[in-house]
């Protein structure tokens, strides 16, 4: 495997759409990361943010989207962790339905995991997915390449070939990398090409046939539990390996480079954004953190300066194991929804930046895989369409998290993890934003969802905050009228 020269930038692809021109009057423009917090009209011209304020010089006969007055405009959300199930499991989701679900949730880009069939463990499979997305997807899709061939955890996948095909990162997500030497070798390759490893932490000799968090609720319900050490144990090992690789790199005088592909790039992919260079990507990004013990380890590692980042999912940030008393299969996820103490630790870590960003782990499954006894149900909940509204309702409106931090954790932060240019509300920037009614209340019902699968952990909940418009790559990709399902 040749890692001597830098591969081209990661590709994020979606269906091309003609760049649009329109005005959205009287909206709250909110991009605190980039110093924007004001009420005014927003002009999009030829697919770019052309200006805002009261004295806009809009072209004559410009289209005016006046049913969005009073809404908030955020830089578009970016999901570093979704399962779009293509190729091989299109009955659960495909490259039309998944990106549509993403757009309905305010996302302008979504990164797809490699646990497909065939596995995305070589260049041609990754290239095929990205080509397919360029035909089908309404918002950009980035692809993750597998770390190991066939996700078997035995030998490395075609890392260099995958990088050349344009993958954003590498991950065996859904499965842990149990072999420490394989992890070490993978890090030595990926650090050279400036792309992060996304790690699913799980000690499989502890998770076995576990259905839920091991604690008093699993004991009461008689369901096999998965202890928190199932996650924190491998985390401690991986941090030790990061420490070793980081020290090795420093001795060799190497630097980890940011790759600066565009979330804000052209739909054809490969184009480099005009945005400022991204900082160096982490060596490892830990996915879907669930346990307080893991949060403690991450906090120490970050204080020490280790090059790691972390994500948490809406379901781990909002739900607790006690809810499993209803035997709802949609709450069966991997890692499991944990105790109230674990949840509180995760929320505090998101608020103080120990948890860098939100990843949905959008994991669609068909009814025949979910509507079975909970022991037999597959792990996973969908998340793209409910992430913002659920977190806004459960954390922001309850005073546990600022709106500023939520927006940042769903937009700029995941881009920094992946070395992508951040969507921003800035004159001249590509139009990549979502428009949200922060007051609209809606009930998560199967018929409100645009994705193919209905296994959502928040089904039946009433949420506050509704995405009304998503503009990606300079064009409207999803719109919903006030009060429309
Ligand atoms: O709940 C999950 N579902 N967790 C994972 O890590 C994988 C995912 C899936 O692929 O269904």
- Which fold name corresponds to the CATH topology? TIM Barrel
The parts where pLDDT drops under 50 for at least 5 residues are 265-274
Which quaternary structure do these chains form? Answer: single chain
| CATH architectural name | Alpha-Beta Barrel
- Mind telling me the CATH superfamily name? Metal-dependent hydrolases
Named once each, the bound ligands are: (4S)-2,6-dioxohexahydropyrimidine-4-carboxylic acid
> Termini separation (Å)?
50 Å
Shape, per Cα inertia axes? globular
Number of helices: 14
Q: Please state the CA-atom Rg, rounded to the nearest Å.
A: 21 Å
| Strand-pairing-aware structural class | alpha/beta
What is the helix content? 25-40%
Count the beta strands: 21
Strand content: 15-25%
* Arithmetic mean pLDDT: 94
CATH C-level label: Alpha Beta
Task: Tell me what you see in this structure.
This protein has 485 residues and is α/β, with parallel strands linked by helices. It has one domain: Metal-dependent hydrolases (TIM Barrel). It has helices spanning 97-104, 123-136, 159-165, 180-193, 204-207, 216-221, 229-251, 292-303, 314-318, 340-352, 367-370, 387-396, 403-410, 412-418, and strands spanning 12-13, 22-31, 36-45, 48-53, 63-64, 72-75, 77-82, 107-112, 140-145, 169-171, 197-199, 212-213, 225-226, 261-262, 284-286, 308-312, 357-358, 420-421, 433-443, 462-472, 475-479. Strands 1, 7, 8, 9, 10, 11, 15, 16 and 17 form a nine-stranded mixed sheet that branches. Strands 2, 3, 4, 5, 6, 19, 20 and 21 form an eight-stranded mixed sheet that branches. A two-stranded parallel sheet has the order 12-13. The model is unreliable at 265-274 (pLDDT under 50). Bound molecules: (4S)-2,6-dioxohexahydropyrimidine-4-carboxylic acid. (4S)-2,6-dioxohexahydropyrimidine-4-carboxylic acid (DOR) is lined by residues 83, 115, 173-174, 200, 333-334, 361, 363, 379-380.
